[in-house]
Amino acid sequence: MSKKRNIVVIGTSKMAQLHMEGVRKAANLYGICDNSPEQLAAAHALFPDAKTCADYRDYVNDPAVDAAVIVTPDYYHLEMTAAFLRAGKDVLCEKPMALTDGECREMMAVERETGRKLMIGQICRCTPGFMAAHDLVTAGRIGELYFVESEYAHNYDHAKGYNNWRVDPRRHAFIGGGCHAVDLLRWVAGDPEEVFAYSNHKCLPDWPVDDCTVALLKFPGGVTGKVFASIGCKRNYTMRSVFYGTRGTVICDNTSDHITLFEDDPQGGKPPFTEGQILPVDVNNHNATAEIEAFVKALNEEGEMPVSSYEGAATVAVCCAAMESSKTGLPVRVRYPEKHA
Ligand SMILES: NC(=O)c1ccc[n+]([C@@H]2O[C@H](COP(=O)([O-])OP(=O)(O)OC[C@H]3O[C@@H](n4cnc5c(N)ncnc54)[C@H](O)[C@@H]3O)[C@@H](O)[C@H]2O)c1
């Protein structure tokens, strides 16, 4: 395709506006959509050249639209993604891919049937600190991994009022927020076979779901892992994550301007490990521009999606296994979807 792709963004929140900015840089921001007139007008003031509509189906039926970015409440992801794919358009859908692993499988089935492309917006894979840490691990700088941990520490007290779609018994905090930490660990350590989890409900008593979950994960090769996800914690938002290897350790997060690397002395000396190396990184915990650029590049080159539908669905499958475990008190084997042939 030589002309710039016409991409529409569905949903116009602050998060969606970061996607609009990314689309404007990497492609043509053809249109924006929101069923709230106030939200739509506010976003249109920032992106006045884009068309507007209140019903996303106007873009589904518009032959000029090449692709859609879905940034609406999670319970719309299946419906909207399927509609665009069936209309012959490619889709970048926000995380979590959907509310259940069954819905994720349906989305994968539609992708398979239509032959269109679906990417999931697991933003940690575009976060500078996590990318730097991932590079160090895959380059072997910390030796063989043996333990990985990540946390999603957030306070959703603000998520009331117009944001109240988050307060929904179908949206467990471990899917909505914990999926970030689960996806990060899967990116670094692979698909965990089994999960064991405990949850409690002490910080947001008026929410319909547990607000804190701790999950232990059994990764391939005997690597162990832990995810802590809390949506009511009284502290600043962060995703502190630590990757432990036989020759070193990386400490990273999505809100600091550096990561810390501890490593064995390659000369065989014995470093005291009291101070790590501080490696500077950009702070950008919603790097939607990098995500959109990767999506458009993969479409242009007809390559694999950088975060495929399998990746999004596998992350939800792990989250669902953790929720099941916290209810039953038993370890749960993760039921992964089939990868596309
Ligand atoms: N990657 C990240 O770090 C990140 C951060 C925030 C949100 N998200 C995800 O993005 C999605 C949206 O979250 P948000 O924070 O933007 O929510 P939000 O509530 O701030 O905004 C949602 C917008 O969608 C609009 N909307 C609702 N139903 C619609 C419909 N049927 N048609 C058109 N517009 C509709 C609402 O009016 C609102 O403007 C969710 O899936 C969420 O999990 C991801």
CATH T-level fold name of the largest domain: Dihydrodipicolinate Reductase, domain 2
* Major sheet size, sense and barrel closure: 9 strands, mixed
Q: Count the domains.
A: 2
Alpha-beta content class: alpha/beta
Write down the overall geometry.
globular
The ordered H/E elements are EHEHEHEHEHEHEHHEEEEEEEHHE
- What gyration radius follows from the Cα positions, in whole Å? 20 Å
How much strand? 15-25%
What is the percent of helical residues?
A: 25-40%
The end-to-end span amounts to 25 Å
Poorly predicted residue ranges: none
List the helices and strands and how they pair.
Layout: E1 6-10, H1 14-26, E2 28-33, H2 37-46, E3 51-53, H3 57-60, E4 67-70, H4 77-86, E5 90-94, H5 101-114, E6 118-121, H6 128-138, E7 145-153, H7 173-176, H8 178-189, E8 194-200, E9 212-218, E10 224-230, E11 241-245, E12 248-252, E13 258-263, E14 277-280, H9 288-300, H10 309-328, E15 332-333
Parallel strand pairs: 1-2, 1-4, 2-3, 4-5, 5-6, 7-10
Antiparallel strand pairs: 7-11, 8-9, 8-15, 9-10, 11-12, 12-13, 13-14
Helix pairs in contact: 1-9, 4-5, 5-10, 8-10
This protein binds nicotinamide-adenine-dinucleotide (NAD).
The site of nicotinamide-adenine-dinucleotide has 25 residues, from helix 1.
Question: Please, could you describe this protein's structure?
Answer:
- This protein is an alpha/beta fold and 341 residues long.
- It has 2 domains: 6-124 and 287-308, NAD(P)-binding Rossmann-like Domain (Rossmann fold), CATH 3.40.50; 125-283 and 318-333, Dihydrodipicolinate Reductase, domain 2.
- The protein contains 10 helices and 15 strands.
- Strands 14-13-12-11-7-10-9-8-15 form a 9-stranded mixed beta sheet. A 6-stranded parallel beta sheet has the order 3-2-1-4-5-6, sandwiched between helices.
- The chain is globular, with a radius of gyration of 20 Å.
- Residues 10-13, 15-16, 33-36, 39, 56, 71-74, 76, 94-95, 121, 123, 163, 165, 176, 286 line the site of nicotinamide-adenine-dinucleotide (NAD).
